[in-house]
Amino acid sequence: MEYELIDFKVRGDERGSLVALEGSSEIPFEIKRVYYIYGTKREVIRGRHSHRKLQQVIFCPQGSCDFILDDGKERQTIHLNRPNCGLYIKSNIWREFTNFSEDCVVMVLASEHYDEADYIRDYEKFKQEATVEFVAFDKEFLEASWKWLNMEPIKLLTNTPNFTKQQQIEWYNNLKKNKSYFIQGIKILNQPIGVYGLKNIKHDEAEYFGYIGEISFWGKGIGKLMLQKAYKEAQKRNLKKLYLTVLHSNQRALSLYSHFGFKENKKKSTNKLLFMELFL
Ligand code: T46
């Protein structure tokens, strides 16, 4: 679990104690916002969300409470009860906080301004996003994609022609030297669930492809994450355009691509396939 408890120096003298929090040196990010919470009843549970980008250092300058942190794999409870102790959490951690002492004040230093779009307030959605991994396309994925691409409806929706095991192995063996091809596997909690990538990569454009082979993971927001990864890869390669083809009947994919910003190029669409492009 990625979090840190930071003990800040107490500069005390006979008049009392003082803790100074210096931006940029002691706090691991530029502080853009400070907020504090008080007067919360003991049994109330606050939080119940994660953040996509926000980093925070959280203090109990007075009283105590429990922070329950969850990274999608494990849960840990941290009891905050010392005024000079900061709990540093980065993004993608689900947090709940409760067990507030009557006098509890929770003070938070935040790396970003308030932005509701940065919150994930649905636990299942958080868990998908937190546990999805984009990894090298290896033999485990080769086997899985053999299964997926020979199975309806994936074969149909991806418009995959018949191919033999031998052809697939040859394609795989050529991958490393094929500079016009970029492919990654997608795992959730270590289970291969799909692939995505760029093909026909030229100096300024490439074709996006991707599918989730494990049908139970459809409709959970993973398609958007795949597109975001492909978009970043295209930016890294200084491409100017991404394009793709999709069956007219594949409404789910069509709506995902349109929401992401892909637009149909009618001149290039056919009766069967819609041609869509996105300028970076
Ligand atoms: C977090 C935990 C530790 C604002 O308008 N501006 C702000 O800066 C904040 C933090 C909140 N709000 C509004 C949004 C809600 O209408 O205040 C209301 C309560 O916020 P929320 O329900 O998100 O509060 P908590 O205590 O559940 O969570 C807060 C932070 O929002 C969150 O980032 O990590 O404290």
List the helices and strands and how they pair.
Elements: E1 3-7, E2 33-38, E3 46-51, E4 56-62, E5 65-70, E6 75-80, E7 85-89, E8 94-98, E9 105-110, E10 119-120, H1 123-131, E11 132-136, H2 139-149, H3 154-157, H4 165-175, E12 182-188, E13 191-199, E14 205-212, H5 222-236, E15 241-247, H6 251-260, E16 263-264, E17 273-279
The protein binds dTDP-4-keto-6-deoxyglucose.
Determine the number of helices (DSSP H or I, runs of at least 4 residues).
Answer: 6
Cα-atom Rg, whole angstroms?
Answer: 24 Å
Low-pLDDT stretches are none
Broad structural category:
alpha+beta
- Identify every distinct bound molecule in the structure, by name, code or SMILES: dTDP-4-keto-6-deoxyglucose
* Strands in their spatial order, largest beta sheet: 11-12-13-14-15-17-16
**Average predicted local confidence, pLDDT:** 95
- Profile the largest sheet: 7 strands, mixed
Kindly list the characteristics that best describe this protein.
280 residues, alpha+beta, seven-stranded mixed sheet, five-stranded antiparallel sheet, 6 helices, binds dTDP-4-keto-6-deoxyglucose
